[in-house]
Structure formats: structure tokens, C-alpha cells
């Protein structure tokens, strides 16, 4: 069956002189390209599934045979949710995070909701020494490690011009987002490569793909992760390791300071469930990479990114966000002043 519009359209095109026909064809292509990409984004987010988690060797019935997953920054927000959901899917879990009491609480939460085995490693990635990384390595060296979630991350307390930012904050962000990610990946990779199939997930941020003024250090470290993951993914693919970067927009956590979830801001539970169902689907990370090494698969995040890419451009979007960052800073300062006055 042909659409009723096709015939009149063909007649219309045929009636045009050649230059106008060429122009009309270019115009139609320009119009259809974003629509075609929108369909791909929606198909990734709503229809197609990702690499099944079963590929990486979980076992709900027999934890002694199940693969292990290491999650950094696992006691709150997105990292905690990865730990809980991976445990429910049949993985044993290593929780690597800063505060032992919070690690114990997450361990008992996992134990009460799944049969997974759990190990905890208290490590402060801000001040981690060689000895700390060796301790982490020793804790995991005998495990059948198949999943690494490089989740721990630090952002600015509030937007600030780079020239006025606190030097300690700048160094802490680089230390946690870059150095800890490199060190943990380096010590885990030999173990991951011992399995037929393994998975690395890096928590990236839209601030890395659309570099955000007044969050310059954070944006730079997250852009580093894009480059690091892309290069690494080629190195390890032939060894059975899938390395993916999650291009994450807002999620309601302590870091985002957004308490209530909404249409565009998922809860960590929603975000992690969607991610685990869509592993390797690019969503709206399509221009540079349709191989799915980078993923934006929460539908509202993906639609936002699609709109920005198609109608604004990633470069121009950086410039436009300067204004909104100034507003966010002004609000944060007002809130601090109110708190200081005890209001
Ligand atoms: N939330 C968002 O909107 C958003 C957007 C884009 C990207 N991301 C990325 O997603 C990741 C997780 O963010 P989130 O929002 O879930 O963060 P979060 O709620 O603040 O949780 C951070 C987790 O990391 C741990 N942690 C913090 N500093 C640590 C340190 N020095 N050493 C060891 N562990 C430490 C925390 O432990 P304690 O509980 O002991 O503090 C906590 O378990 C980050 O890489 C972030 O950049 C988040």
C-alpha cells in the first residue's frame, strides 16, 4: 500500500525545474535526517534490549558459582542502586566506598533482598595510597570478577568560575574522577580479562559531553572519561570485555541536590534499571558513535540530547548553559546565607 501523499509529491517534484528539484531534495533530506535519528533514539530507549546481563555469569540459585561485581561509591545514590540491582540479578558484590557504617548498612540491605555474597572495602578515594589500592586488589584477587562499575565521583559544591574556585576542591575532583577511576580499572582489568565476557561501566556526565561552564573541572574530568573509555574499549574488546560510558544527565541523588524525581530526573532505581536493560545501546549518543560505547538511554535524557544535537549543537549549548549556571550559583549562595542566619 502506498501513502496517498506519495503520488502528489512525486508529481510536484517532477513539475519543478532541475535546480529547484535539487534544492527540494536537499531540503527534504535536511528535514528527514533528524526525524530518522529520533526514531533510532526512541527505538533504543523504548523497544530494543541491550546485551543481556546473563552474558556476564550471574547465578541466582547458586551464589558460589556466580560472578562478582565491584561497585565504587556504593553506599548512596546511583552506586548503591547498581549494587542492589546487580545482587538481585544474581551477582555477588564488592562494595568499595568511604564509610564503613554505610557499607555495613548496604551489605545488610543486599543480604535481606537477595542470596548474593557481599564483601565490603572501606576506602577513601580522595586520599587513597598505594597501600589502599593494594588492599582493594588483594580483596578481589581471588574472585571471578565480571563487572566493574566505576561510579564514585565528585562535583563542585556549586557552580564557580574556574579562576575563583577552591584549589582543594579542584584537586579533589581530579583525584576521585580521574585517578581513582584509572587505578581501580588498572587493578581490576587483569581479573576481568580472565572471563569469557566482562563489563565495565563508567559513570560519565552530560557535563563531559556538553562541557559546562562554571563546572569546568568536573566537566573536564568527565570528558576525560569519554576519551579514556573509547580508547580502552578498543583495547579490551578482543579480550571479551565490554567497556561502556554512561552519559548521565540529572538523577535525583545527594550529588545533584535534586530531591524529587520528575519527568526528566529519574530516581537512581529507575535510572539503573533502564541502564542494565539497555547495555550497549547508544540512545542519543549517535553522532560520534553508533557502536554503543557511550550510552544515553534514559528516554527523557536521550530526547533532551537529541534536541540539543539537532537544533542547538553541542558547542553552542555549552555557551548557553553559562547563564543558567550563574542563576544556579546565585540561588545556592542565597540558600547558604539563609542557612547561616538559621532560617
Ligand atoms: N546524580 C546525578 O545527577 C549525576 C549526573 C551525572 C553523573 N553522575 C555521576 O554518577 C556518579 C554517582 O553520583 P551520585 O549522584 O550517585 O553520587 P552520591 O549520591 O553523592 O553518592 C556518592 C557515593 O560515592 C561515595 N563517595 C563519595 N566520596 C568518596 C570518597 N572520597 N571515597 C569513597 N567513596 C566516596 C559516597 O560515599 P559516602 O556515602 O560515604 O559519602 C557515596 O556512596 C558520579 O560519578 C557522578 O559524577 C551523577
Short overview:
The chain has eleven helices and seven strands. With 343 residues, the protein is of the alpha/beta class. GO terms for molecular function: oxidoreductase activity.
CATH homologous superfamily heading: NAD(P)-binding Rossmann-like Domain
Q: Any idea what the CATH architecture is?
A: 3-Layer(aba) Sandwich
> Strand order across the biggest sheet?
3-2-1-4-5-6-7
CATH class: Alpha Beta
Bound molecule kinds, no repeats? NADP nicotinamide-adenine-dinucleotide phosphate
Average pLDDT score: 94
The parts where pLDDT drops under 50 for at least 5 residues are none
The SSE string, one letter per element, is HHEHEHEHEHEHHEHEHH
CATH topology: Rossmann fold
Helix content: 40-55%
Question: Can you give a write-up of this model?
Answer:
With 343 residues, the chain is an alpha/beta fold. It has a single domain, classed as Rossmann fold (3-Layer(aba) Sandwich). Helices cover 52% and strands 12% of the residues. It contains 11 helices and 7 strands. The protein has helices at residues 6-15, 18-47, 77-88, 100-113, 130-140, 167-192, 206-209, 216-237, 268-277, 299-312, 314-340, and strands at residues 68-72, 92-97, 118-122, 145-150, 198-205, 241-248, 294-295. Strands 3-2-1-4-5-6-7 form a 7-stranded parallel β-sheet, sandwiched between helices. Helix 6 links the parallel strand 4 and strand 5 (198-205). Helix 2 (18-47) packs antiparallel against helix 10 (299-312), helix 3 crosses helix 9 and helix 6 (167-192) runs parallel beside helix 8. The longest helix is centred in the first third of the chain and has 30 residues, at 18-47. The protein is globular and about 75 Å long. The N and C termini lie far apart (68 Å). The model has no long low-confidence stretch (mean pLDDT 94). NADP nicotinamide-adenine-dinucleotide phosphate (NAP) binds next to helix 3 and strand 5.
